[in-house]
Amino acid sequence: MIPVPAGVRIWIATGHTDMRRGMRGLALQVQEGLGRDPFAGDVFVFRGRRGSLIKAIWHDGLGLSLYAKRLDRGKFVWPQTVDGVVSLTAAQMSYLFDHAC
């Protein structure tokens, strides 16, 4: 689990993301696709097409970190919206990372 301090905003990009992207590619997607600043201290979470892999990027003030989790079975539950980004609480993110369908 990502050690997210209180007050950090967590955003998930709806839809699917090309999971071949690393830190730079995901940061560019945050800037261009979501219209947000990837270096502002928020956590951004992305899901692959098959739903079994998620990646999160977070700038903690010192540097950009990339976290990934791949499920052996099942898929991550993901919201369907037209906006492109959904805000989560730390508790909701913890649930997302720990539960699959």
Any key phrases for this structure?
101 residues; alpha+beta; five-stranded mixed sheet; 2 helices; 5 strands
What does the secondary structure layout of this molecule look like, with pairings?
Elements: E1 10-13, H1 23-33, E2 43-47, E3 53-59, E4 64-70, E5 85-88, H2 90-98
Parallel strand pairs: 1-2
Antiparallel strand pairs: 1-5, 2-3, 3-4
Written overview of the protein:
The protein has 101 residues and is α+β, with helices and mostly antiparallel strands. The protein contains 2 helices and 5 strands; from the N terminus they run βαββββα. It has a 5-stranded mixed beta sheet. The longest helix is centred in the first third of the chain and has 11 residues, at 23-33.
> What is the count of distinct domains?
1
Radius of gyration: 12 Å
How do the strands of the widest beta sheet line up side by side? Answer: 4-3-2-1-5
How many runs of DSSP E, i.e. beta strands? 5
Number of helices: 2
Largest sheet: 5 strands, mixed
- The helix content, as a percent range, equals 10-25%
What global shape is seen? globular
- In whole angstroms, the N-to-C terminal distance is 19 Å
Low-pLDDT stretches are none
Q: What series of H and E elements makes up the topology?
A: EHEEEEH
Please state the average pLDDT score: 86
Beta-strand residue fraction: 25-35%
Secondary structure category: alpha+beta
